[in-house]
Amino acid sequence: MYKGIVTMSRKITIKNIAEMAQTSKTTVSFYLNGRYEKMSQETREKIKNVIQETGYEPSIVARSLNSKRTKLIGVLIGDITNSFSNQIVKGIENIAQKRGYQVIVGNSNYDPESEDRYIENMLRLGVDGFIIQPTSNFRKYAKISQETKKSLVFFDSQLYEHRSNWVKTNNYDAVYDATQACVQKGYEDFIIITADTSLLSTRIERASGYIDALTDSSLSYATYIIDDGQTTVEDISLFLQNTVRADRKTLVFVPNCWALPIVFTALKKMKFQDMNIGLIGFDNTEWTDLSSPSVTTIVQPAFQEGEQATKILIDQIEGLDQEERQQVLNCSINWRESTK
């Protein structure tokens, strides 16, 4: 039986482990890939002890040659800069690490061409599957799945054009309920400041929740479409100055995470905390509780969304569950000073 700690200046290989455990390289490879059916408990313990003593870490490439899996997951995010995406990635990595997988993350910026490049590069690296925040070009995902035989799980969007695996939040219901609550608070005029809703089903759901809640209460609304990277604080300030009536209680809804701080800055210039203007947005919890005034937000369980998407994907990769799975998680509403 192997005993003692070995200090080696060169990189330890499967061959070294096999020699120390007094077994074959094939047996060590089987052990690393969880194939224990033809292995005695004594042999398993020997290999386990050697690996622990040497601190051996098998390379992804070496393991993939034997298992035909790379243990790599490709993750494609629309916008990595906001807190929602950060929490999604943390949730994905939490489950991936527990299941022995590594994660490659790409930021598409909601650009279909950029998305295509990331997918092609990830396929060249041999990823076992994808977790994707999709753009509106849904048909290509069905083609990718069919041609590459790779498992795909979508988050933050529900694909209507073909059957698929996805995890999302109840965006429509959460916005509808929050808007109805604001109607009850006495708001009279309503504004939605949003990015182009045609790019993502999530944007459609949020805008529809707002509009339907107002329609059901026989209320009208004004709309301002913003362009990420193009619309400035001054642009929004000018729109609000021309739209908001001083004698009316007005609610401003911002469904895009990245747009909320821009709109908040514009409203601060107007000193909206001293006016009859309310503000409600999505996520941004890293600053909305600390701002003055603090901002009411609909908060998505992003970490849990990332975890659930990863569980579904890995189960499919490993053949544990081949049924299509869809899951809807509930948002929460943090009522703060901006809608007092």
From TrEMBL:
GO MF, one annotated term: DNA-binding transcription factor activity
Record keywords: DNA-binding, Transcription, Transcription regulation
Domain HTH lacI-type: 12-67
Cross-referenced InterPro entries: HTH_LacI (IPR000843), Lambda_DNA-bd_dom_sf (IPR010982), Peripla_BP/Lac1_sug-bd_dom (IPR001761), Peripla_BP_I (IPR028082)
Source organism of the structure: Streptococcus varani
Gene3D superfamilies: 3.40.50.2300, lambda repressor-like DNA-binding domains
Domain of life where this protein originates: Bacteria
Gene field: regR
Cited CDD domains: HTH_LacI, PBP1_RegR_EndR_KdgR-like
Protein name (record): Sugar binding transcriptional regulator RegR
Pfam families the record matches: LacI, Peripla_BP_1
